[in-house]
Write a structure and sequence with these properties.
- The protein is an alpha+beta fold and about 475 residues long.
- The chain is built from 6 helices and 25 strands.
- It has helices spanning about 5-30, 175-185, 210-225, 250-255, 295-305, 335-345, and strands at about 30-35, 65-70, 75-85, 90-95, 100-105, 105-110, 110-115, 115, 120-125, 135-140, 145-150, 160-165, 190-195, 230, 270-275, 280-285, 315-320, 350-355, 360-370, 380-385, 390-395, 415-420, 420-430, 435-440, 450-455.
- Strands 1, 15, 16, 17, 18, 19, 20, 21 and 22 form a 9-stranded mixed β-sheet that branches. Strands 14-13-12-23-24-25 form a 6-stranded mixed β-sheet, with helices on one face.
- The radius of gyration is 24 Å and the shape is globular.
- The model is unreliable at about 1-5 and about 10-30 (pLDDT under 50).
- The chain binds fe (ii) ion (FE2).
- Fe (ii) ion binds near residues 198, 234, 235, 236 and 357.
- Fe (ii) ion (FE2) binds near residues 236, 320 and 357.
- This is Purple acid phosphatase.
- Keywords: Glycoprotein, Hydrolase, Signal, Zinc.
- It catalyses: a phosphate monoester + H2O = an alcohol + phosphate.
Length: about 475
């Protein structure tokens, strides 16, 4: 073997030192902050006479039709709609190519909010549906009927492929409309939406003008009447307005959007779980008590051990306020909930956590920050292959505009961040692999700006990081 000369020894030393400096740089600085430049336009709500808000024609025609999963397994569906002139029928007529027409009867409710009185809000649960079947359904029986359809999910099982859409903080601006259109035209074809909170932003209007809840219902109908959206409550659902005499939190939201919380043993509609295909989805509430001994805490403590990963390998958590967020907006708002629940997420190997609230996009590495105990000073997130990836997808496009201001330097845990409006899809292939892609509204429908192959934490817990290391 040839001996190294002095000059080559020096060169080797330089390479070693350089390598060390470079590796330090990787540790100290985070992933990628997008350099994408967008047109600076103000985000404004669509006016009330926009075509997307059009009231369907006909006397007492059902409007704001929306569906969501109605049980824990996906064999039931909640159909909701609003009639304006009179209560009308609560009946949903439904059928598939293989079954005769059947009827399901629901209930009607109304509410008042300050000087606003709602229309007649109908909720009807259809049960005992067959898996993986296209059904047609009709609402508005008696006067003006309207027909829609949906496809039930496949039976729950470990290798069942399924594609979820991800939308958050949608609102009803011109940008919101672009986001929804991009989701609808995405060739990845989401089969159900995981919605991470902040629906209508009606509370940004004087007196929380609930007419904007109605317009939002009509705007989103073109998607949510045909595929279920799984709801998470955000801060814009609270509608707590003591100055208006409105002191019951979540009043418009809970009257308009029902979820199957009782099916998962929850005692309130703000935290619950559903199984869908090969995924187990846990919805949490950033705006309900979550400290020790609270109903949400006790429920989650019982809930996590129930998740059978050999039945549903993919464990997904939805919440509104992110735990990891390197923007200068809503900074640390999720911190208290993180302190309470993060050790459980690591213990139970949650695959991914989706949150909204910050009006931008960010994806984290698999990291945890559970070592801190007040006195030891260990308070920096570390890479952790048992931890979830945290994704902030509050970029639906509401009137409050984009969060563009980021903390610098980008923290090591942050893999990718960009202040653009968009949506994502989480495409489960089998028990080991899922393809995740984020789409920005300025691009063509098929373009994914940020993507990642997720390796399942239970069946394939190897490093799926997208960073160089
Ligand atoms: Fe929010």
């Amino acid at each position: 073997m040839a001996k190294m000369g002095t000059s080559s020894r020096v060169a080797a030393a330089i390479v070693v030192v350089l390598g060390f400096v470079l590796s330090l740089a990787v540790v100290c600085n985070g992933g990628k902050t997008s350099s994408f430049v967008r047109k600076v336009e103000k985000t404004v709500d669509m006016p009330l006479d926009s075509d997307v808000f059009k009231v369907p024609p006909g006397y007492n025609a059902p409007q704001q039709v929306h569906i969501t999963q109605g049980d824990q397994l996906g064999k039931a569906l909640i159909v909701s709609w609003v009639t304006v002139e009179e209560p009308g029928s609560n009946t949903v007529l439904y059928w598939s190519a293989y079954s005769k027409k059947q009827k399901s009867e629901g209930k009607v409710t109304t509410y008042k909010f300050y000087n606003y009185t709602s229309g007649y809000i109908h909720h009807t649960t259809i049960r005992n549906l067959k898996f993986n079947t296209k059904y047609y359904y009709v609402v508005g029986i008696g006067h003006t009927e309207r027909q829609f359809w949906f496809i039930t999910p496949p039976e729950v099982g470990p290798d069942v492929p399924y594609t979820f859409g991800l939308i958050g903080d949608l609102g009803q601006s011109f940008d919101s409309n672009k986001t929804l259109t991009h989701y609808e035209l995405n060739p990845q074809k989401g089969q159900a939406v995981l919605f991470v909170g902040d629906l209508s932003y009606a509370d940004n209007y004087p007196n929380h003008d609930n007419v904007r809840w109605d317009t939002w219902g009509r705007f989103t109908e073109r998607s949510v009447a045909y595929q279920p959206w799984i709801w998470t409550a955000g801060n814009h659902e609270i509608d707590f307005a003591p100055e208006l005499g409105e002191t019951k939190p979540f009043k418009p939201y809970t009257h308009r959007y029902h979820v199957p919380y009782k099916a998962s043993g929850s005692t309130a509609p703000f935290w619950y779980s559903v199984k869908r295909a090969s995924a187990y989805i846990i919805v949490l509430s950033s705006y309900s008590a979550y400290g020790k001994y609270t109903p949400q805490y006790k429920w989650l403590e019982q809930e996590l051990p129930k998740v059978n990963r050999s039945e549903t390998p993919w464990l997904i958590v939805l919440m509104h306020s992110p735990w990891y967020n390197s923007y200068n907006y809503h900074y640390m708002e999720g911190e208290t909930m993180r302190v309470m629940y993060e050790p459980w997420f690591v213990k139970y190997k949650v695959d991914v956590v989706f949150a909204g609230h910050v009006h931008a996009y960010e994806r984290s590495e698999r990291i945890s920050n559970v070592a801190y105990n007040i006195v030891n000073g260990i308070c920096i997130p570390v890479k952790d292959q048992s931890a979830p990836v945290y994704i902030t997808i509050g970029d639906g496009g509401n009137l409050e505009g984009l969060a563009t201001n980021m903390t610098e330097p980008q923290p090591a845990y942050s893999a990718y961040r960009e202040a653009s409006f968009g949506h994502a899809t989480f495409d489960i292939k089998n028990r080991t692999h899922a393809y995740y892609g984020w789409h920005r509204n300025q691009d063509g429908y098929a373009v994914t700006v940020d993507s990642m192959w997720f390796f399942n934490r239970y069946y394939h817990p190897v490093d799926d990081s997208t960073s160089a290391q």
